[in-house]
Each structure stands twice: as structure tokens, then as C-alpha cells.
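[Help] Beginner question about ligand-bound structures

Sorry if this is basic. My supervisor gave me a protein sequence and a SMILES string for zinc ion and asked me to "get the holo structure". I don't really know what that means in practice or what format the answer should be in. Inputs are pasted below exactly as I got them.
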Amino acid sequence: MESTGANHLRTKIGLSSLSRKSVVLILDGLGDLPVPALGGRTPLEAADTPVLNRLAGIGSYGLVDPVGPGTIPNTHSGCGILMGILPADVHRLKRGPVEASGAGRNLTTEEIALRANFATLDRQAGGLRILDRRAGRISSGTDELAARLRQVDLGDGVHGELLPTDQHRCVVVLSGPGLDPAVTDTDPGDRGMPAFFKSCRPEAAGAELTARKLDLFLEIARDELAAHAVNLERQANGLMPANGVITRGAGRGFSLENVLDENGLSAAVVAGCNTVIGLTRTLGFECCTDPRFTADAKTDIDAKLSAALHALERHDLAYVHIKAPDLFAHDHQPERKKVFLERTDQALEAVVRSGAMIMLAADHSTDSNTGAHTADPVPVLLFDPESPAPDDSQPVNFGEAACAGGNMPRQSSHQLLLRLMSLMGKPAAR
Ligand SMILES: [Zn+2]
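Answer (accepted):
No worries, everyone starts somewhere. Holo just means with the ligand present. The predicted complex, written as C-alpha cells, is below.
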């Protein structure tokens, strides 16, 4: 946002109206490990972030284990806890139904959903090799690809459906009697690569039918996708074909307790990422979306922050989810992650001027060296504009190393959220 826009906003909302209200910025995959290309620093340590450095110097900063020490979080669990889910409930938070909710699909009691990727597969001597888990990060043509896979009859009263969401991401919904989500993932994850495609297997008695029907659906999907005009054109242009679907996180619809709801705090979430949109809808928060709020580096950060400040007219907290840092780390691009963090830092000045409290957090660390999520703690900060800065406050080079010696104890994301609630004058009742 330009400074004139920020001033206009400040006048319109009024500084005092944001007092004790909070903007919570979730930088997806913010935490990282030292990278040789950045002189042994992490992307955040290498980034020039004067705003964050200043806020850390006059506020509170430290390291946070998103779920708990040693646990590798994923986006939905890491964001879910920051959005008020209790740590004890994280295991109930399945990716499939979250993504289905993001796609606007509410599940009936006879349905299960799985998070899926369009992927590039290749038949080789050892089986179906997964060449790329994201089909070259396909970003167009997925509606047409998925259109062939609506209401696929899988026998025994079971139907399968593929719903595209954003880029390579999609959702498989299975409908019918006798389904059980206790089945294995067919997506090996970044850590499982390189890999051959493995059939879905039951993880509990009673899930055999589901594993069989899902396998049949994925086989039909491969047949339909391989011959699809979108893929023929991609191959002709030297792009990876989206000729397969891989799945993970099977689950049923659910509802969960939320520490914000329980303590009378309302929230809005500004996001472009289907996972976070789904989580928002599942939790019953207001979801602010806009074509400018994409889940990649093209996202309009200023517009997202502006939407968050406006949402604070109606709510106590406004979350802003920004996906790009995670994507750059997954793609082994620490330099681009660093530059994106610098862009984000500049945009934050408008929030500082608004008078709102600021919490900067992350759902997990993503290692730019390996491209995988890790269990490493993430750097966080809390800034309360009404709390006087210490006389001797100095800017901090905000990053993983500085946060290891920060002025907040190492804690979980849940504890960090409780700390924010206390600062807002709404300490958790239990
Ligand atoms: Zn994430």
C-alpha cells in the first residue's frame, strides 16, 4: 500500500478503533535452515527487513514449535493451531475435508475426501514412476482436466469425483455406503521422492472397500488424463503432462473446538490458498478472498493487508496468510524467498501505522536445501503499539539465530496465541 492509502485508511478507520485488535500474519514456511548460497544464513536472516527488525527490537520475539518440538507440521495443522484449534485435536484435522471445504464442497456422512495433486507419472520397467508430484506446477487447464472425472461410477454404489482447486492441487471425494478413511496415502510427499506410485492400502479392518475404490478411481483418472487434449498440448510445448493423480489425508467432515470462539473472539482470514480457505470455512470464520489474493508470489500483499485492516472493523483478529515463502523453499529458491520476505517487510509499514497489534508467525519451517518441511522451530514476533518500548531498545536482525536468543521463551504456537489473547485483554478462561 502507498503511504497515502495507509493514511486514508487510518483516517477512515480511526487509530483508536484498532486498539487491542490484532493482525496475525502467517508466513507459510517462513522458518528455514542456513543455505550455502546465502553465505550460511537463512533466507530471513539474509533478507533486509528493517520493519521486522524494528518491531522485534521494541516488541517480543523468539522461537516457536508450531505443534510441538520434534513434530513436522503441515500447512493445515500449523495454521489450524494459530487459528485456535487445540493441539490435542490436531490429529483429527485431516487435509482432505479441509480442501473439500475450500472447494465449496460440504461432505455428507457417507462421503470422504482426500487432498490430491495432479502429478506426472511415467510407466517404466519397475512400475509407474512419479516424475513430478506437481505436474510441473501446472497452473492452467485443470478445470478441463477435472471435468472428465465428475461422478465416476466405481460400482457397489460408490462414486468418485475430482475437484480442482488452485494450481496442481485438487480434491478427490468418494461417495457411497461403507467408506472408511483409514487408507494409506498414494502421494509419497517430497521426502519420499524419488518414488514409484504405490497402490492405496487399508490401514484398518473395514477400509478395504475404500482402498479398492480409490485405486480404481485413480486408474480411471490416469486413463482419462493421459489422452486429454490439455496434456497433449502441454507435451507439445515441452511441459510436464498432468497424467495422474496422487492422494493423501483422507478424512470425513468434522467440527472442532476453538480457543478463540470459546473466549468470545471473532476472526477473519485473508487468504488465497485453498487449504487455508477450507480451514477458515471449517472453523466458521469470515473468509476474505479476492482474485488479487493468490497463493503464490504474484499475490498482492498490500491489498491483503488492507483487507485485513478493514476486517478489523468487524472482528477482533484478522489473519493474513501468505504462501510464497513456502513455495520458494520447496522449489530450492532461497534467494527468491529472501527477496519475497523483503517485499513483505516493506508492506508491513501500513499495518504498523494502523495502530493494530501485530503477530508474525508461521505454520512450519521449510528447508530450501532439501525442499521439505522440517521440525525446526519458526521465528515469531509480537508487537503491541501501546506497550512502551524499553529505553535501550535496539533493532534486532530478525531471523532464526536472533530468535534463538529472543526475549520470549521457546513455546508452541498454541501458547503464542494464548499470549496474544492476554495482550488483547482476553486471556483464555481455561
Ligand atoms: Zn505451509
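A couple of things worth pointing out: Residues 119 and 134 are 5 Å apart (CA to CA). The chain has two domains: 3-93+256-423, 104-251. Feel free to follow up in the thread.
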